[in-house]
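Recall from the previous chapter that SMILES is a line notation for molecules. Here it describes NAP.
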Amino acid sequence: MGSYAVQLAKAAGAEVTGVCSAAKMDLVRSLGADHVLDYTTQDFADGTKHYDLILDIAGNPTLARLRKALTPTGTAVITGGEEGGSWTGSIDRQFRALALSPFIGQRLTMVMGTQDVADLEYLAGLIDAGTLTPTVDRSYPLEQVPDAMRYFDAGKVRGKIAITIREAQGN
Ligand SMILES: NC(=O)c1ccc[n+]([C@@H]2O[C@H](COP(=O)([O-])OP(=O)(O)OC[C@H]3O[C@@H](n4cnc5c(N)ncnc54)[C@H](OP(=O)(O)O)[C@@H]3O)[C@@H](O)[C@H]2O)c1
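With both inputs in hand, we obtain:
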């Protein structure tokens, strides 16, 4: 998500701050981010900077921390949900964000990705125009998907991994 979000935000004219670990700061800068924070040593929510829009992809920051990092009318969009309460599964934080949002000046919301032909054509157009570059770290053939997932789980992927599928001969 992050490797596309940084590029799309830059294409839309935003001043972009990316958050990642030290090993990926060069990559995030190369994607166009104006500022890059290493989350192991820097806190995006330390109150020194306030953001109009936060795309919350990882790290599970509390709603209080998101609010502290937003401008008074800023928006936080929660995309992930790796943890959460037992009865709400993994989207406890999103539910609380949606419940709180109508009562505050800031907007706290969530997004669920959909596969939409028009959106994909829009992205393909940006790729053709050179505005957007998919960051493919490694490609794996279909039969090596377990290796691909182990690499993914280790948190080492820089951007995306791709799975190549060849049509069987005679089909
Ligand atoms: N809502 C939806 O429709 C939707 C769709 C797809 C994915 N998702 C969710 O989005 C999340 C990540 O997606 P992705 O794999 O595409 O992510 P990604 O953007 O490729 O990688 C996550 C980024 O967050 C950084 N990060 C890791 N821990 C962090 C922390 N504690 N604080 C701040 N930043 C941190 C990572 O840095 P390092 O790699 O350097 O550690 C990396 O730059 C997952 O939870 C997934 O379930 C949601």
